Amino acid sequence: MSGRVPSQWEELTAADPAHSTWYVERFRKMAADGQDIFGEARLVDAMLERGSRVLDAGCGPGRVGGYLHRCGHNVVGVDIDPVLIAAAEQDYPGPTWLVGDLAELDLPAGGTPADFDAIVCAGNVLTFVAPSTRDAVLTRFTHHLAPTGRLITGFGADRGYDFPDFLSDAETAGLTLDLRLSTWDLRPFTDDSDYMVAVFSRP
Ligand SMILES: C[S@@+](CC[C@H](N)C(=O)[O-])C[C@H]1O[C@@H](n2cnc3c(N)ncnc32)[C@H](O)[C@@H]1O
Fold this sequence. Notes:
The protein is α/β, with parallel strands linked by helices. It has helices at residues 8-15, 19-32, 39-46, 63-70, 82-91, 134-143, 163-172, and strands at 53-57, 74-79, 96-99, 116-121, 145-156, 176-181, 195-201. It has a seven-stranded mixed β-sheet with strand order 3-2-1-4-5-7-6, with helices on both faces.
């Protein structure tokens, strides 16, 4: 991966090496306290037939992909942070969890077919990739979708990636916007929304 641009998450964890562990423990505590940490995954599951192929892009400690695996889907999770991938393997065994940069995503090169029925990119992941790699990340997503596959993204406003810029980048990457929501529990998107869930397909 020489010459690659570090993601904003890597810069964060380089400045604060305890950040990854804090993030893992945060979700473990929420789960132990009985909080709902699977809302994003439930929405994605509602879009899929049983046994679908799912890529959890920027999977972190694996809550989204882990839930979808338990629903009976075939899940691959990719994340740049090895601490989070180790937590995913421990907390949610079953999916294929891989350390990798979404800007260089090429799963067929490692023997994993690219035709995903869903790529889910939850938890502000697109605001943590290096801004100069956003186009590459979105283009790689397009190339990893099955012809009828869909990309589902979610991130907040005021995180450095304006929604209009993102929608323009997605279109350039060959994605068609099907649906915009303001929450993962299906509230409509409005001009005042501070979060956007977007569903894309391939033309
Ligand atoms: C806030 S966390 C969200 C994790 C997970 N999706 C969730 O919702 O729990 C953001 C994640 O994006 C990952 N990430 C950021 N840039 C990345 C890149 N270029 N390639 C792969 N993962 C990346 C980070 O490592 C981190 O796990």
